[in-house]
From TrEMBL:
Belongs to the aldo/keto reductase family. Gene3D superfamilies: NADP-dependent oxidoreductase domain (3.20.20.100). It holds the Pfam family Aldo_ket_red. One of its GO terms (molecular function) is oxidoreductase activity, acting on the CH-OH group of donors, NAD or NADP as acceptor. It comes from Niallia taxi. Substrate binds at residue 115. This is Aldo/keto reductase.
Length: 279
């Protein structure tokens, strides 16, 4: 990966950019429109949203404006959304997908994910995703926040394996066993909250490594993600930060530095535990 638009092939051959823009907790309206438009203008080709973020309409407008400004086609973008827990179930998931598509103003999605492994709900939802995939409404399907046992349970009855598992991943939560399991099964791991919601930015080890390369701590973490083979989607609404987050292709961390950063692991989450959530 040497460029912001470099991609990785998912198990079905679909190419997904290594780096994208996340819009979790970005308010709908002008804020998210501007964030998405700015990212596309500055070379981003992957945008990640979700029904529960309640900003798909603004994301869609940002996509429209970004495409016009960058002079590129819809096919050059990779757009992800996710089905929320209350819409899990075969018919409900199909309907939720159409709602997301309509809000985004798109004819298809590149990736659709089950947002959380809600017990007794996700298998029927997965069947719906397989239907959407077979019908050409989405280029790739996957899950988010699935632990190994969730994946094993899903794959017992599934016609196809998830192509993506998007999980919390950062130097304090390295998910070694889960990543190994996904790799064995051809499931690409993607990171949410790669910067641990800003809680790592004053870490002394990361600051030392950042100073060596004349980079920010955020850039070092994003680079660490990518060198671990993990797709990542840092969030920002500020143009200079959006540009900075993508400026990670002109340096490489050493093997020793990669291991030092991995050594920060404490199995510490900033988000909910996939085995113990109540929503």
């Amino acid at each position: 990966m040497k460029h912001l638009q470099d991609t990785v092939a998912l198990s079905n051959g679909v190419q997904m950019p290594w780096l994208g823009l996340g819009v979790f907790q970005v308010e709908d309206g002008s804020t998210v429109v501007e964030s998405v438009r700015t990212a596309i203008k500055n070379g981003y080709r992957s945008i990640d949203t979700a029904a529960i973020y309640q900003n798909e309409t603004g994301v869609g407008q940002g996509i429209k404006e970004g495409l016009a400004e960058a002079g590129i086609s819809r096919e050059e973008l990779f757009i992800t959304s996710k089905v929320w827990n209350e819409d899990l179930g075969y018919e409900k998931t199909l309907a939720a997908f159409e709602t997301s598509l309509e809000k985004l103003g798109l004819d298809y999605l590149d990736l659709y994910l089950i947002h959380w492994p809600k017990a007794n709900k996700y298998k029927e939802a997965w069947r719906a995703l397989e239907t959407l995939y077979k019908n050409g409404k989405v280029k790739a399907i996957g899950v988010s926040n699935f632990q190994i046992h969730h994946l094993e349970e899903l794959m017992k009855d599934a016609e196809m394996k998830p192509m993506i598992n998007q999980v919390e991943f950062h130097p304090k939560l390295t998910q070694v066993e889960l990543r190994s399991f996904c790799q064995q099964h051809g499931i690409q791991v993607e990171a949410w909250s790669p910067l641990m919601q800003g809680k790592l930015l004053d870490n002394s080890l990361l600051m030392t490594i950042a100073a060596k390369y004349n980079k920010s701590v955020a850039q070092v973490i994003i680079r660490w993600d990518l060198q671990n083979g993990v797709i990542t989607i840092p969030k920002s609404i500020k143009e200079h930060r959006i540009i900075e987050n993508a400026d990670v292709f002109d340096f490489s961390l050493t093997t020793e530095e990669m291991e030092q950063i991995a050594g920060l692991n404490e199995d510490l989450r900033v988000g909910p535990d996939p085995d113990n959530f109540d929503f």
